[in-house]
Specification:
The protein is built from 13 helices and four strands. It is mainly α. The longest helix is centred in the first third of the chain and has 19 residues.
Length: 263
């Protein structure tokens, strides 16, 4: 019987399980070797056994790919047409599969799939979907946490106000004083988000500041320069257009999106 759905065709011909015996033998021999090298059941052996599983266990790789395929396919089942560039999305999916196979990170996998799905459904054409996937792969959980805090504290409804512009009329603008006034709030909320105790106000600001600078290296935030003393007190960062777009693709609520994307 002919298979009309190309997705089903792919699954029938390409998602078949490979013979498991060679992989099982290799894994068994590797485990025995590790037991001889590390007779005590310590941390070192456990780490290497996990590495062995990731690199040589074809069954777990196939299962990981199968789950990823089902998740990606689920996003396509909800879309009939897309404004996204087909080649760009294809590359994004390939990156997602590659990263997921080697990292086995469920949280990142969910972000990859959500990002690709939102790019497919977007009313505007999302540029560089593959680059967004690459960025997500490099962000750790603390990066994501702090990026969300910057969005919540430094990007509130009503921040942008209409200001008269001769010859044009009113133009929506964001005054820097609005953001500068939230330096202490941002610093405290980031510290709380990454698990620091802030009750006595003796916590180090360097940890949160370092994460924000890391995010700035990815082009997701921009520091608002101020004169600072050491030890570091408060600091101020705002979202970049790239950061705004990434948060939107990850399904976060993003205020003032329409103002940022016009920049």
């Amino acid at each position: 019987m002919a298979i009309d759905n190309p997705m089903d065709q792919y699954e029938q011909y390409y998602m078949k399980e490979e013979p498991s015996l060679p992989g099982n033998l290799a894994r068994y021999m590797g485990e025995q070797g590790l037991k001889l090298a590390f007779p005590e059941n310590g941390f070192a052996r456990g780490i290497l056994l996990k590495v062995l599983d990731v690199l040589f266990n074809k069954e777990s790789v196939s299962e990981r790919n199968r789950v990823m395929w089902e998740m990606i396919r689920g996003e396509f089942d909800q879309v009939e047409a897309t404004k996204a560039n087909h080649d760009d999305v294809q590359k994004a999916i390939q990156f997602a599969f590659w990263y997921d196979r080697h990292e086995r990170n469920d949280a990142k996998r969910e972000r990859y799939v959500r990002l690709i799905g939102n790019a497919l459904r977007s009313d505007e054409q999302v540029q560089d979907v593959a680059s967004f996937i690459q960025t997500v792969e490099q962000l750790n959980e603390r990066d994501i946490t702090v990026l969300k805090v910057v969005n919540r504290i430094m990007n509130k409804a009503g921040d942008w106000q209409a200001q008269p512009n001769p010859g044009i009329g009113n133009v929506m603008k964001l005054h820097p004083a609005v953001l500068a006034g939230r330096a202490q709030e941002l610093t405290v909320q980031i510290a709380i988000a990454i698990g620091q105790a802030t009750e006595d106000n003796q916590y180090s600001r360097e940890h949160g500041y370092a994460i924000c600078n890391r995010l700035q290296g990815f082009g997701l935030v921009h520091e608002i320069e101020t004169t600072r003393e050491l030890p570091l007190t408060n600091y101020t960062f705002r979202l970049s257009v790239y950061g705004i777009r990434l948060l939107k693709l990850l399904g976060e609520e993003v205020q003032n999106y329409e103002h940022y994307v016009k920049l």
